[in-house]
Design the sequence.
């Protein structure tokens, strides 16, 4: 089962992968998706300029809060990813990603966000286009996939 969570936008992107040996394929998936995401965003008119504007804004605020305004920029797009991967928790904590709660069925977990709360007209079109580029990258990747299926059975109560 593949689960994609997220919302459309373009201000930043987050991707999760697992850092344990049992789920090492999630890192391969996330890094391949990262490349497809930035390639798709680069092909979308205006998105890299929007990202540059957001990155410049973050740089101004970063001197006041280095942790809160990190600059993990990859090819012009801010993509938050853990350097060593995350570890499955199995707990239903709202702060945990779906992948951390259900590591055996989730190969992709990420989202993208943009300043779209008051957007309208051409700016709304721009941020929606960035979100569609994110979605298109996922569809492209999973459409090309060759999947390894492992069937398991566990007692639930």
Sequence:
């Amino acid at each position: 089962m593949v689960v994609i969570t997220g919302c459309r936008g373009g201000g930043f992107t987050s991707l999760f992968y697992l850092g344990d040996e049992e789920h090492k394929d999630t890192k391969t998936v996330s890094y391949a998706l990262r490349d497809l995401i930035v390639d798709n965003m680069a092909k979308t008119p205006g998105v890299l300029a929007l990202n540059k504007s957001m990155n410049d804004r973050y740089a101004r605020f970063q001197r006041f809060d280095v942790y809160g305004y990190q600059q993990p920029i990859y090819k012009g797009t801010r993509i938050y990813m853990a350097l060593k991967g995350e570890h499955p928790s199995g707990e239903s904590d709202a702060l945990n990603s779906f992948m951390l709660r259900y590591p055996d069925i989730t190969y992709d977990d990420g989202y993208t966000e943009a300043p779209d709360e008051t957007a309208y007209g051409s700016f709304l079109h721009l941020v929606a286009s960035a979100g569609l580029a994110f979605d298109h990258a996922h569809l492209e990747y999973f459409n090309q996939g060759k999947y390894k299926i492992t069937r398991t059975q566990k007692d639930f109560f």
Notes: The chain has a mean pLDDT of 82.
